[in-house]
Amino acid sequence: MAYPYQIRSLDEYKAAYEKSVNDPEAFWSSVAEHFHWRKKWDRVLEWNFKEPNVKWFLNGKLNITENCIDRYLPEMGEKPAIIWEPNNPEDRVRVVTYNRLHKRVCQVAQMLKNNGVKKGDRVCIYMGMVPELAYAILGCARIGAIHSVVFGGFSAQSIADRLEDAGAEFIITADGAYRGEKVIPLKNVIDDALIGNRTVKKVIVYTRTRTAVSMIKGRDVWWEDEMEHAETQVEKGGVVSFPAEEMDAEDPLFILYTSGSTGKPKGVVHTCAGYMIWTAYTFVNVFQYQPGDIHFCTADIGWITGHSYIVYGPLAAGATSVMFEGVPTWPNAGRFWEIVDKHKVNILYTAPTAIRSLMGFGLKPLEGKDLSTLKVLGTVGEPINEEAWHWYDEHIGKGRCPIVDTWWQTETGGTLISNLAGVTPAKPSWATLPMPGVQPVLVDENGTEITGNPAAGNLCIKAPWPGILRTTYGDHERCRKTYFSTYEDLYFTGDGALRDEEGNYRITGRVDDVLNVSGHRIGTAEVENAINMHSDVVESAVVGYPHDIKGQGIYAYVICQHMHGSQDDMRQNILQTVSRIIGPIAKPDKIQFVPGLPKTRSGKIMRRILRKIAEGESHNFGDTTTLLDPAVVEEIAKGKL
Questions:
Q1: Which of 33, 198, 325, 511 fits as disulfide partner to 87, beta carbons 3.0 to 4.6 Å?
Q2: 3-class secondary-structure state, position 132
Q3: Mean pLDDT score, 174-202
Q4: Same domain, yes or no, for 562 and 487?
Q5: Do the beta carbons of residue 558 and residue 593 sit within 8 Å?
Q6: What value does the mean pLDDT take over residues 106-114?
Q7: Under a CB-based contact definition with an 8 Å cutoff, are residues 526 and 586 in contact?
Q8: Which domain holds residue 454?
């Protein structure tokens, strides 16, 4: 099986890019021809960025699971779709063939139907990294229910907010999840999230950790019992079937919540056809996937990377994906390399945070590990620094594996800027060139395009690609304001970037009030709101600062009314509060208690100054005369942690 839309040379890339910009409708029509449609589209694209309104493959009908599973059954039914590597390396590996995946997804679809789930209903999924999570996602897609996966590290309050925003009536969870030495009590967290909830009708609970749970009669059911019943319904005489719901190209496929610069998470909506085509196209081209390759994306499916490059992209290309339940450093720092060795991995896709963390353990964990099957390495989530890039290149790729440095976002659905492995040139710590169909521009603060090279500015995109978000769930105005109102007729990424003489792009980081911590976006307002919930806190301000492992750390400046106990006690109390309200992922790395914050006379906090102090600057704060109390800056700088 070859991919007719795979780019194989620099000249082919240039030709594809030119066609995608000059005639996007013809270009994407030729790519979309290679997927399974119930009814072909009437028109390829309709769009404006004012409302915004973007529609791809108008009136086309399809089901994404037929494209990810059914079409591969006749010739590749016994080929592995997912290889599941459990948390404990001594436990049994599960190899899920396309036939097995088909059966399980049909069962889940039937189970959901039995429990009252219909097309358009929202299903919240809160599970660990087990194959059942993939079955749940695809089972929803098969019946046209909209899935909303929540990462297993979020708190009950965060889940409650997301359930309310999505109006979710159904939840799929597990008793618990393994993460290294920890057991995360998922069902207990769900129970806390459901206190006061009046919309959730059913909670389906998968057994993974044998953690004691409370099962509420009439609401909670066991996954195993429901699946057993569904199996008798979908399998007749050895033939498995559950008809896939016919979906419109623009029907919502899923909602995924992401942090914004306000405290309220926003539900990014992706639709069936454009997202499918974009993830498959970018997967095949960025990684130069060849039939039979083993692809290992180390992300969690709770994030967009897992959605796009463990589940939908690889399966839509008939690929084999490794899914890993554990963490890179348990039971030892050689775990990734053991998995590469054991499963003869060809493509490894991970985060700069993981690479920097593993660098810290030196080369000993690599001893005795045969990494010779690796052909392509990739990074995702944040810009990779040169030192980590060279370590990855030298010690993991042995200098013979191209590294793809992929830049993209939850909102973009898949990679927008990246070199194509071994096809277009790589440049350490640069994302390099845009994918076909992506038209990046750099603009200044006023939205004026910065032409010529080299250049630096705010990164925007001037035309839609198939994987672009369509809206933020239940609040289209928020989508418009966040992404399309800053600069006229442009999608604003929220990132700054450099462009070199050859037109390569390097992402320099967020230019709004959003932090990028270990590749995860966390809104400063969200963390501040959580800190301010503590009864002794008057006010707080949060900024990012350079962190050796995470890329960006969270630095909190906090004004307290009373200090009960020592500063250390107070810090622990604040960390506990943030964990409870958002989850451990948002805990500040540093908390400095301050007498006041640098504010303008209108009450705006000058985060620019706080950022400089967090980065180690002790003077050169620029003009502070507009501040209400300029002396407070000196006091804060003196107390820097």
A1: 325
A2: helix
A3: 97
A4: no
A5: yes
A6: 98
A7: yes
A8: 442-510
Do 550 and 628 fall within a single domain? yes
Last residue of a domain, one of 488, 510, 532: 510
Domain end, chosen from 510, 527, 549, is at 510
Mean pLDDT, residues 450-475? 96
In a domain, 566, yes or no: yes
Compute the distance between CA of residue 472 and CA of residue 459 in angstroms, rounded to an integer. Answer: 21
**In terms of domains, do 570 and 583 share one?**
yes
The answer to whether residue 474 sits within a structural domain is yes
Give residue 261's pLDDT: 56
* pTM summary value: 0.89
Question: Residue with structure tokens 């928020």?
Answer: 478
Buried b (16+ CB within 10 A) or exposed e, 222-243: ebeebbeebbeebbeeeebebe
**Same-domain check for residues 482 and 541:** no
Q: Which pLDDT belongs to residue 514?
A: 81
pLDDT at site 624: 72
Task: Kindly list the distances between the CA atom of residue 610 and the CA atoms of 198, 543, 557, 568, in Å, as whole numbers in the listed order.
Answer: 42, 7, 8, 21
Shared-domain flag, residues 496 and 589: no
Instruction: Report which DSSP code applies to 331.
Output: S
Same domain, 450 and 547: no
What one-letter code names the amino acid at 640? K
Q: Within this chain, do residues 633 and 522 fall inside the same structural domain, yes or no? A: yes
The predicted pLDDT at position 445 comes to 86
Q: Residue 339: CB partners within 8 Å, gap ≥ 6? A: 85, 296, 322, 324, 345
- By mean pLDDT, which of 221-225, 418-422, 595-599 is the weakest? 595-599
Nearest-angstrom CA–CA distance, 306 and 298 = 8
Q: How far is CA 563 from CA 534, 538, 594, in A?
A: 12, 11, 12
Name the one residue in this structure whose structure tokens are 């690929």: 319
3-state class (DSSP) for residue 33: coil
In this structure, what DSSP letter does residue 2 have?
Answer: -
- pLDDT tens track for 290-309: 999 999 999 999 999 999 99
Task: Enter the tokens of residue 2.
Answer: 């070859």
536 shares its domain with 629: yes
Question: What average pLDDT does this structure show over 541-554?
Answer: 91
Nearest to 398 by CA among 343, 328, 340: 340
Residue 255 within any structural domain of the chain: no
Read off the pLDDT band of 602 (50, 70, 90): low
Q: Residue 614's closest CA among 553, 535, 560, 569? A: 553
Q: Tell me the CATH number at 480.
A: 2.30.38.10
Quote the number of domains for the chain: 2
Percent of the chain with pLDDT over 90: 81
CATH code at position 586: 3.30.300.30
Q: What is the pLDDT of the chain when averaged over all its residues?
A: 94
Q: Is residue 372 part of a domain?
A: no
